[in-house]
Amino acid sequence: MSDELTVEVLLCGEYEKLLEECQQSLDDWNERSEEIRQTHRKGEAAGRELLRLQARFAKSYTVLQRHIERCEECQLAVRVNQTVAQMSMESLSAEAN
Predict the structure, then answer these.
(1) Are 47 and 5 in contact (CB under 8 A)?
(2) Per-residue pLDDT reduced to its tens digit, 62-87
(3) In a domain, 4, yes or no
(4) How big is the CA angle at 82 (ends 70 and 76), to the nearest 5 degrees?
(5) How many domains does the chain have?
(6) pTM confidence score
């Protein structure tokens, strides 16, 4: 039986808000794309709408990424998660040998 290494790292509130906005914009884009496909809607208006939703997602994702790069709390969380992942991989590798 192996010991499982788990760590729960809390990210800052701003990250959580930005992540929620990013996910919502992706969901909106996906849902509307599916609706347009199902109704076989074509034309310039449909294309513009999808481009607008895609741009909204791209912008929210970029804002989220920039936040992670600039926020000390988020950078610490990323480093902790990377360390935990590395330790888990090393543990799995050692168990396999």
Answers:
(1) no
(2) 999 999 999 999 988 888 888 888 88
(3) no
(4) 35
(5) 1
(6) 0.71
